[in-house]
Amino acid sequence: MSARILVVDDVDVNVRLLEAKLTIEYYDVLTCHDGQTALTLAAKEQPDLILLDVMMPGMDGFETCRRLKARAETRHIPVVLVTALDGRADRIRGLEAEADDFLTKPIDDVVLLARVKSLTRLKQVMDELREREESSRRMGVGDEAAARLRTEGGRVLIVDDDESQAAAVAAELGREHRVVVETDPQAALAAAKGPLDLIIVNVAAQSFDGLRVVAMLKSGDARRAPVLAIVEPSERPRMVKALELGATDILPRPIDTEELSARVRTQIRRKRYTDFLRQKLDSSLEMAVTDSLTGLHNRRYMAGQLQALVGRATHGGSPVAVLVLDIDHFKAVNDGFGHDAGDEVLAEFAVRLATNVRAVDLPCRMGGEEFVVVMPGAGLEDARMVAERIRRDIAAAPFRVMGGEEFLTITLSIGVAATTGAGDTPEALLKRADEGVYEAKAGGRNKVVARAV
């Protein structure tokens, strides 16, 4: 199935009708008849979209939506309120409950399917980010984190050739957000290269093709920014096409300022939630390959890179050299001055190491006081010369620790090895370099030993 949809309505005929329409389009449909059951099913089944009737006995659709959006495990699920009401107050009330959109009965099948495709596509993007976290609560998106996702102060770009309409929209949004208006689509595309929280496009513009602007925005630098399309309600094909091209919401003309503000807040909230997930993902990926103390790559990253480089070297590619570096008498630093001083030495050592290798080299911390530098394209003699430069630099100037109260002379022993051709392995390469370290230490430390075999 292309997506799982939960249909909630207390009238069984309505449920069966929606279920039939969606099943024909190969959607997996779940159904229930009241708000409380909807809350339970949504948390358990994690649907991709919820079609929620407004007029239900007991807990109505507004309250059900509000509770869905208040829970960490269901907040990310798009909710479309389905109602026979077409009043302005009800639309605004639904948007304030954080509903993602409205469908009015009798439901237009074309609009229904366009809206379903648009919102499930958005949900899939968010799921790809959320799946990389253990759970929304454990990654910090609980009630406190959600409260930090503000809806004001957004960066909004308006693309509209109707100057009076654009001015009215800008005036309304300018109370809460930073707004830029562009009447020329090329200027708008240039402005969209900067960071934005929302782009509003008049797809009914007279002097340019608004749909083409939407398409270009969603394929360019601004593809992650949500697009709110201003449409004429009578132009149904244009509205459907805007959703197909990637518009995330629709605003009918004439524009109701309260509805505009509510829809903008919804879009900015979702954008910031998605940005939050991406930031968490980027941080997790960085932590997975970076040593937190020194900022160098860690053992896991080094192993993956070395495997690929040695593989190419053994099949006729450029050679690879490695340096294994071990700080001499590091235990004495920890025992004599404390582990905080030891950490200061390691952090300063990492800085000096990184400044003494080539831009293409990969300095890594293996653990403790042991470091490795992977040197793509380097032979044994080239690597030995770099190792000597590092050794001299470390020994030349004392390390300041404990707020500058103590100055420690640090030296290190370095083993050097390079690939030998077919049959070599990362493990054998590191072992030869490691044997060089042991030989350097046995020879009095503060030495470099290069081992060809």
TrEMBL record:
Keywords: Nucleotidyltransferase, Phosphoprotein, Transferase. PROSITE patterns: GGDEF (PS50887), RESPONSE_REGULATORY (PS50110). One of its GO terms (biological process) is cell adhesion involved in single-species biofilm formation. Its EC number is 2.7.7.65. The keyword Metal-binding does not apply. One of its GO terms (cellular component) is plasma membrane. This is diguanylate cyclase. It comes from Brevundimonas aurantiaca.
